[in-house]
What we know:
- The structure is a homodimer.
- With about 230 residues, chain A is mostly helical.
- Chain A contains ten helices and three strands.
Amino acid sequence: MEEDVKEGASDKYSLRGRVFSRLREDILNGKYEEGIELREIAIGEELGVSRTPVREAFRQLELEGLIRIIPNKGAYVVGISDKDVRDIYILRSRLEGLAARWAVDHITQEQMEEMEENVYLAKFHTEKGHLEQMFELDNRFHELLYEASGSKILEHQLKDYHQYVLRIRKKTLSSAKRGPQSNLEHEAILEAIKNRNPDDAERLANEHMINAYKNMLDKGLIKPEE
Amino acid sequence: MEEDVKEGASDKYSLRGRVFSRLREDILNGKYEEGIELREIAIGEELGVSRTPVREAFRQLELEGLIRIIPNKGAYVVGISDKDVRDIYILRSRLEGLAARWAVDHITQEQMEEMEENVYLAKFHTEKGHLEQMFELDNRFHELLYEASGSKILEHQLKDYHQYVLRIRKKTLSSAKRGPQSNLEHEAILEAIKNRNPDDAERLANEHMINAYKNMLDKGLIKPEE
DNA sequence: CCTTGTATTATTGTATACAATTGATTCGGC
DNA sequence: GCCGAATCAATTGTATACAATAATACAAGG
């Protein structure tokens, strides 16, 4: 079932990898608030490891922009500002459009089938109001799109952003209105890819992300402009 | 003269930071070829440090995608494939367009002045055939554009890609034809920003990158398609 | 009372020691 | 001679010891 072929840098079987994943999750989920100082020893004790793997994880988290390390001083959690979220959504809207365009030429039969199943299941769970499943399916739809683009670079980039705004996204779908609308948009993107229409695919994926963005604004999850 | 205000993760005063910068440079410059195994002890001895800072640098290099670490086995230099370069140029063309668009509203007086100076100097050094200066000025022009976008996220992303294709880019400008043409395009982008014309700015920056891309193809620096 | 310098302490930076894993080599059996 | 298991060497993974740095507390002098 090879689940972890391309584990990138997470490597869940080493202590460092586990520390890294755990800290990232905790930061993104808000366990460690913005500005909090992370101490190597404290984190190490909490997770039952020594400072070495913790330090290596810190260095990676810094590169991901989740913490800021001030030499000889400490590691501080960096928050995501509303502006960051806005910027990421604009970037994503453009890049997801590109991903959809490329997917037209690169999607595999297997990916196409999973996407169809995804859209179908999403409709079902949305009607039933199963929030957790809706969230997971939405995640998966976008990941599929990234993978289908056939570009490691683009896929990696979009997954990064996707992960980065996870905190916000968890709140977004739990809306009675956005859920069904989002599903329809997914379906339209899928149709455009199936019909081998790159222009439509790009435009629809682009609009889909813009709509998600507007939805967040309307709900007051982030504030518009500075 | 504060040269290193926002040193990101490089931090040139710690051993780890120096090892990181050095290794990245060496990899991008081709000192360590694709597939080469990097041994912690060997690198440490070469740079006169112990394994600890080397290991931390390795973890960061992996996150940057420059090496691949196989647990309990080794660290291997990852090459940039031609497809990666092509993808990055397409992404850059879109994102640089966005940066130019945003720069229209966010560029500071200071940045504008440096950009004007940059364009002026570039013309001079191109006429004289000073390759090293041309390269540096080209670098700086793009960095300025990223900074002027007013978006940390976009700036970070574009600088990453910029750095990533450095190896290829060094060869590109050393062409009698592309140098002057590139300068003209820079000037046009600058004009559009100065005239507060976001559509032109975006289109010109977008085209600039596409042209750079085509230039590489024409020169046979990378091969087209797979 | 405030400022300044110093001693103390806590924390990070680096080096090294030890454990675990991998890959190769050797040796025995067939 | 060939295959496989045991052994050994080399390398990475982790823990810990030590060094350097920065924050804090506090006392002396103004």
